[in-house]
Design brief:
Strand content: 15-25%
Number of domains: 2
CATH topology of the largest domain: Rossmann fold
CATH architecture of the largest domain: 3-Layer(aba) Sandwich
Helix content: 40-55%
Oligomer: single chain
Order of helices and strands: EEHEHEHHEHHHEHEHHEEE
Radius of gyration: 19 Å
Number of helices: 10
Largest sheet: 7 strands, mixed
Length: 280
């Protein structure tokens, strides 16, 4: 029989909502880091930011089925709970919440969050229902946990942008963006990287370096769409990848007007069947 609440040194591993409510009922300065597990240094950075800005930190590990477009993608998503627990314990996280699907959704009918037309861009254009699933589950987590701050990585900037828009409008919770963490080859750290071998990870690094150079060139000529098209064709040919999108968007409202506005170069592509996203 599994214990509902397990004390591991200073970290409480919580599996039931009732135990979660007891553990955090008096926490007014709670930082929340939602994850799907398979933790890496990017997650560590989020946790450290929470520990610096909040009195207590809660991490969740929940592979949310409603944000996957493919059953195989959901089944193949990397999982290693024991390894994750060891890492979180070493980081002195206060609470780890590992719920089941039935706990979060509780057999209740899903309230579908609707994206408007201007929001159906980038990943939302190619992954139908993905962000609706993300927003729905984070709405449920926020309602249960009531954190003061939620910490999210900038690697999925569109996700951060949408979560901030929907959650801050409904709750007294601030969404904090944290810088993308990269390895020595400029590869953005991601749980999905574990699905690639060393040779293909080197390719990802070369693709990243190419796009960093492209972003710097665009800074000097924000209307240079021909250059983006040329680099896109070159990348597809050289690395045998399928690119879903490669485009610039400003950081104010994610539209394509870049004049006098901070912007990022966004990309999503498939390498050996693994979907990777990044921004520069």
């Amino acid at each position: 029989m599994f214990y509902l609440l397990i004390l591991i040194l200073q970290m409480k591993l919580i599996r039931q909502i009732t135990d979660l409510n007891k553990a955090i009922s008096n926490q007014k300065e709670l930082g929340f880091v939602p994850t799907m597990g398979s933790l890496h240094k990017g997650h560590t950075s989020l946790i450290n930011s929470s520990k610096q800005k909040c009195k207590k930190t809660l991490v969740s590990i929940f592979v949310n089925p409603t944000q996957f477009n493919s059953t195989n993608d959901f089944k193949n998503y990397p999982r290693d709970l024991n390894k994750d627990i060891k890492l979180l314990k070493s980081l002195k996280v206060d609470f780890l919440y590992v719920p089941t699907v039935s706990q979060i959704y509780n057999n209740k009918k899903r309230r579908v969050t609707r994206l408007n037309k201007s929001q159906k861009i980038l990943c939302a254009k190619f992954r139908k229902g993905h962000f609706e699933g993300v927003l729905d589950v984070l709405n449920r987590f926020t309602n249960i946990i009531k954190p003061k701050k939620i910490f999210m990585g900038e690697k999925d900037y569109q996700q951060f942008f949408l979560v901030r828009y929907f959650i801050e409008k409904k709750y007294k919770t601030k969404i904090i963006a944290c810088k993308t963490i990269r390895d020595i080859n400029k590869v953005a750290l991601s749980s999905r990287n574990s699905l690639l071998d060393l040779e293909n990870l080197k390719k990802v690094g070369k693709i990243s370096l190419t796009l960093i150079k492209l972003k710097n060139l665009i800074k000097d000529n924000i209307k240079n769409k021909k250059l983006i098209k040329k680099i896109k064709i070159d990348l597809i040919k050289k690395f045998k990848i399928k690119i879903e999108y490669l485009e610039c968007r400003n950081l104010i409202n994610l539209n394509t007007n870049l004049k006098d506005k901070p912007f990022k170069l966004f990309v999503a592509y498939y390498l050996k069947g693994v979907r990777l996203i990044d921004n520069f």
